[in-house]
Amino acid sequence: MSEFASTERLVRAHFRHTTSYKHVQSIEALSSEAGLPPESIIKLDGNENPYGCAPSVNQALFEHEFYHIYPDNEQRQLRQALEKYTGVPARRILAGCGSDEMIDLVVKLLLDPGDIVINFVPTFSMYSYAAENSAGRVLDMHRDENFVIDTARAVEAAIDQKAKLIFLASPNNPTGNITPREDIMRLLKTGTIVVLDEAYYEFSGETALDLVNAFDNLIILRTFSKWAGLAGLRIGYGIFPDVLMPYLWRIKTPYTVNKAAQIAAIISLQERAYYQKTIKALIQERDRMLELLSSIPNFTPYPSRANFVLCRVAGGRAKSIHDALISNGISLRYFDSPKLHDYLRISAGKPEHTDALIAALRRIC
User: Fold this and answer.
1) In angstroms, rounded to a whole number, what is the distance separating the alpha carbons of residues 268 and 81?
2) In this prediction, what percent of the chain has a pLDDT beyond 70?
3) 322 and 345 in contact (C-beta within 8 Å)?
């Protein structure tokens, strides 16, 4: 037995069966693959805001003089700004390196090996990824043909299986639909901790934030990646029950929210009037794209309350269309799973992005 084979035996057993997270490609990687300059790439695969951040954010980042000093690990100014934005006391708010870090912290804090996590598929794959990395057992509950969850069955499973966590995105990614408030409340009444991911709240306007005082088993996650154009700075936050906050601070790696991200998030919260314009523009473009996609042969787009549209492609052509678009400098998200066989998810972009996409699809299809 070689030295390397012997070392590999030391890897924790459950990691030998986990898979890596399937991330979207960077614009640099897409540029290289398509053989086109980065400025020619139309990136509609990551649900980013193509309008970017407010000009005042760029100015504040440029003018800051203390990047050589560690950031405030307690995020005091940012959490105070988030208190004003959400109405929730700062003591219950924690920011992280994207909402991904918040998901990772939740499972790290709460899961023992073998604990059950309820997951409504298809959905954001980070939930199962994080749970499995913490040796949790993921119970996938399939949504129906309209991507609606079976709440009664989920309630029964949560109680019978003594589930530790329920992950629920609303609007859901990648399907774009919301879960009704009454269904969220039924899940909360099981006593299982419900992690409600509101990453796309600013586009849907639907929130369960007012329930955090009524249910001490509700966690809400949000992000600056989508509406505020800060995906590259990785900044998100969670709203947690008071009882969990001391433990979260205890296990959180220090300084994961860098100084630039904190500055950008604080200024973004001050520039809500600016962002309302870009959010409105993206919602309008989402709806226009939905209508135009309906005219493409074999394309079935689904209504969405987020900043993207999920589209089923008949005839097994989703992959070939995805690859053909890449060669044209247009990147979409391709899905090929049992519940999403031959689907494309398309982020809302600028009007010229939609026009280029539709023209390319008409040529290809």
Assistant:
1) 10
2) 99
3) no
**Nearest-angstrom CA–CA distance, 354 and 100:** 29
Q: At what angle do helices 318-327 and 351-364 cross, to 10 degrees?
A: 120
Distance (Å, whole) CA 294 – CA 171: 21
pLDDT tens-digit series, residues 316-332: 899 999 999 999 999 99
Cβ atoms 135, 17 nearer than 8 A? no
How far is CA 251 from each of CA 78, 113, 167, 180, rounded to the nearest angstrom?
Answer: 20, 18, 21, 33
Match 């007012």 to its residue by tokens: 210
Which tens digits make up the pLDDT trace of 138-192? 999 999 999 999 999 999 999 999 999 999 999 999 999 999 999 999 999 999 9
Cα 11 versus chain centre, distance: 29
Residue type (1 letter), 70? Y
Per-residue model confidence (pLDDT) at position 176: 98
Q: What is the DSSP letter of 69?
A: S
Q: What are phi and psi of 153, to 5 degrees?
A: -65, -35
Q: What token pair was written down for 304?
A: 């969405």
Enter the tokens of residue 299: 């394309």
The alpha carbons of the chain give a radius of gyration, in whole angstroms, of 21
Cα–chain center distance at 360: 27
